[in-house]
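User: My collaborator sent over this chain with a note saying "see what the structure looks like." That's all I know about it. Can you take a look?
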Amino acid sequence: MQNKLRSFFLAPSLPYEAEQDSVRDMRVSSVCLFLVAISILEVLAFCVEGVFARIAAYIWFALGTFSFVYLCWHYLAALVGDLRKGALWGFIPLAVAIPFCFWFIDSYAFLNTESLSELHDTFAQMKKSDVAYTSVFWASYPSRSLTLNLIPTALFGISPWAYRAGFSFPILFGALFLFAGIRSFHRKERHASAVAALAAAALFSYPMFCQISRSFEMAISSVSYGLWAIGALLLFAARPSRAGALATAWTTGLLAASFTSGLALVALIWFLLALWMIRAFIRRETKIATLVSAVLANCIVVGVALYVIRPRTLRAKQIGFDQMLSSFQEALGYTLSFSHPVFTPSALVIPTIIAALFALCLRGGLVSLILAGWCLPVIWSATNLHGKIGPQLPFALYRALIIIPAILYVMSRCVLWLLKPLHRWPCAARACVLALTVSLYWPLSATFQTQPILTPPRAPVGREVVAMEVIKVASSMGLSPYSDAWVSNRADEKALENFLPCLQYFLPNWERVHNSQPLPLDAAQPKKPGIIVTLPHDPAATREYPGYRKEITEHSLKLSYSQNVVLTIVTLLPQ
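Assistant: Without extra context I'll predict from the sequence alone. Here is the result:
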């Protein structure tokens, strides 16, 4: 029995273990010292701040650029490798992800004030000397990860497309990195590329994932950056290298700075790295063990630092254990429901159950067993932890989205295991892979039909159309989003539906003046241009403003499908 357990835990299951020559001469001392140094710098950045925070921030950005290029290179290498064999598997997740992430995202309709607030706060934090490295948004979310969401805005300027693309591009690359990771880890398997592509594409068939992704805000970051971290870890485990160690450490740190539920995936990665480290020591792979130890140490230091700055991150709901257990059972029902596909598409419920049984029967090795078991406490936590808003079921399952990559990995491993007996009959194996590819169409099409992905969104209404009109007026005044100016709501907020929060991203440098606040017309202060939005015959439109040139325009706007309103927009330009 002991020999069987030892064989189960230590049997050669990592790809590199059959290729010892590829890692025997690897020099790891410099990378280990670097990882230890930036771990110490991370502590100093939070405890001392100042110059240490600035240096840590610049190193973090440089290491992030390196990691992103490293992961992209592996995806492109996988793509080229498939093309040489006449295969196009790597294009499947790309073809599914591009419309999902970037189609019909350039409208002012469905503006999400939460994500607009996240980007606006990050824009303000980026002006600090440490570029938001140690900052926290809403006292709960490290601003560090949100800096990546500003990249499209920095490249293409402020626009509805750039704001949404900031939350979409990590999902696109996450799917590609997951494909590259699974393919590399199972490269000895004949159909590894096909199965990896199908697993990455299946990500977009989960209804809850699609719903939260298309809301374009931080809640999806735990999944998107989790895919980066999983892809990097699989590449690192497939063929250990100094570059893979750095990419794994950085992406795991990025995941630790994401939406709070990502901490569960961070803990899982720590556990897997610790098992790998112990395994390497037992197998007397000193260099590998040392390298993995350095990665693990860095991940723990960064993760703990980013956890400590989140006050009251994890707290249980004030309910009894019996109610917690009942909620957990209800959540499991929603997770694997045929009639009410909230979390898992109906077509993937049975494959999910089969994959779970495959893992529990130890056919997929220790990793698959750990992943299957890990999903249960994640669902429990998503259901029974309060968080900021304490959401109710089934919506609360959006916090459990991080289990989807784990489920897909176990599924892929199960499919590869089932295909092994068919290697003697290549035609039968190809037919099975083709059948899996075709069958993926149904869950994907069902999700794409229920989510507004392939159809244009409705026209802007309410506060969206008012915000759009203010942006047009500002542009006609010759003012940019970064001008030192102000905009005020001087009308009944119910009539305008409070448009000011929609402007926080689009006019980041502008002061937003609410109805209850005085206009910024203090004679002692330098005069700044401004826009007043009000209703006809309102005193704000009829009064004079000494020292300003006043222009009045009236706009008939459609606030809803049944309500039109005539707004008066007053522009004030210093004389």
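A starting point for your reply to your collaborator: The mean pLDDT is 89.
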